[in-house]
Amino acid sequence: MKSPWLALMAALFGIGIAFAPAGPAFAQQDDDDDDKPAASAAAQADDDDDDDDDDDTQGADMVPAAEGLKIPPGSEMMPAAALNGDQIGLPKNSLSSQIVTPLILGEGGKPFTVNHTDFYLRAGQAYRWDIKSEGDIEYKFNAPDFFRNVWMNQIVIDDLEIHMAGAPAWLEYDAHGTITVQFQTVRPGRYDWHVGGLDDEHEMKGTITVVP
């Protein structure tokens, strides 16, 4: 005859086996539920990041080209650090990027024209600059000293972003299109830009002046 204690232990052991899988099953279900809000939050964060550029562009200050500013006569002979952004009419420094008036290379039937030649910017300000090709020839936009003296954020072509650890050699256009350069100026200075590969008769060039 079996001891009552042995019978009781056997019964309890059987109950333990019957209910043992329930714990991990419930735990797994809880983990899955916890992961869903985290995944949703990550997806929302990605969406927010994608919208940042659009939000910054809306309502951003537009920086006019030189002819829209109050540039004193003979200032091209002065050091850039001697000029004053407030006096020449540049927008105040802001935390968001400012939009530089687009530079357009060429136009229909006039491949060697540019809409503006000279640009003025403030030191320590973030900018976005659209450089467009509307002519029917190939353009190589060169501004090596300028690119080396700013903090390059990114270059955007058709919503595709290029991030670099240094300055681009040049921007090349084999067809009509826009390249957006996003950067932050660092120090005052006057820098030349030009379209490479053209003879003197058809040269396309100008300046970018960064002032305090």
UniProtKB/TrEMBL annotation:
Residues 1-20 form the signal peptide. Residues 45-58 have a biased composition (Acidic residues). Keywords: Signal. Residues 24-61 are annotated as: Disordered. InterPro entries: Cupredoxin. This is Uncharacterized protein. It comes from Jiella avicenniae.
